[in-house]
Amino acid sequence: MIRLRPLLLAILLAVASSPAHAVEQVRVGMMSLEAPNGYGAQLQALAVESQNILPRLESDLGVRADGRFYMVLIPAGGAPDSGLRALDATVPWWAAGYTVPERRLCVIRMSMAGRYPNGSIEAVLAHEATHLLIHDAHGPPLPLWFEEGVATWEGRRWEFRDVVAYSTSLLTADLPKLAELDSSFHASAAEAQLAYAGSHAFVARTIHTYGPNVVRDLLRASRTEPFPRAWERVTGTTLARAETDWRRASLIRYRWIPVLTASSTLWIGITLLSVGVGMRKRAAQRRVREQWAREEREAQEPIEPWFEGDQPWIAPGSEPLDVDDPPPPAPTPSPGPSPPDGSS
After folding, report:
1. How far apart are CA 202 and CA 233, in angstroms?
2. Which residues 6+ apart lie within 8 Å of 205 measured at CB?
3. pLDDT tens across 115-132, in order?
4. Helix H or strand E segment including 98
5. Do you find a cis peptide bond into 312, omega within 30 degrees of 0?
6. Which residues lie closer than 8 Å to 109 by C-beta, 6 or more apart?
7. pTM for the whole thing?
8. Tens-place pLDDT, residues 163-197
9. Could you tell me if 30 and 23 are in contact, meaning their C-beta atoms sit under 8 angstroms apart?
10. By the number of CB atoms within 10 A of the CB, which of 125, 146, 339, 342 ranks highest?
């Protein structure tokens, strides 16, 4: 939920016209779904899903809506109402939705609904309706990180995309303390991603540790006492200890284990090994080709005489041979031994 500064909110509430100016409108319980003309099909489909979403939220949170509230869809082209456009211009561009509890107004930016941390229009509706119901619980303001974590959890459960977003953020940034997450929800898109992923992770861990009723019990307990004290009474441990355990587990599970076991790291290692083997193989092939070329050049060169210079090589103690002299006569064969019988 994007919290607006009080002065800015007062100005916007003064100039904003009623959301009832939307052409299409569908009533689901205490919620009025509204959208510009031409989006009736999307509105009807969302109304069907809302019949399951709203009762689930009221059961999970233990809270019912105080009265009628508006859930307005803004298409990619912007809101047709000038007052709503002015309000929408004050919200960070990356936000898929926002809630103004004082006006009982929730807004869904249809073109941004697919962005993290939501993923669908239905998830944004559940997220923003959770903010409104928590406001209707009439307790002291909750830590924003807890409220955003609960709203994200109600929009959808912890999924693989959260692991990716969380791990990616922790590889490039330190994990801030829970109290430091509040300002990040209104900062850059990257800071907000880490804030949503971190708060979602903490709430998911809390629910898995203490059971599905822990959020409802915390909301009930925090109506009458500060949130840290309500946390300790419901969970039996201090919030500081729970945060310390969560931070330690997060750094191990979502920073170091993915680095060491991620398939991308494995494939990088395999790629580097393959490159090294390939380089050695290509070097060996290059040496073979160079040897072949050398042997081919040697085969094409003219054959040099077996002697060098004008005279052939003369063995030591021999007379030099005049190349102009005629060759010596062939030796006369000597008679062989007589036959054994004495015949000639």
Report:
1. 18
2. 246, 249
3. 888 889 999 999 999 999
4. strand 97-100
5. no
6. 74, 88, 95, 96, 97, 124
7. 0.69
8. 777 777 666 567 789 999 999 998 999 899 889 98
9. no
10. 125
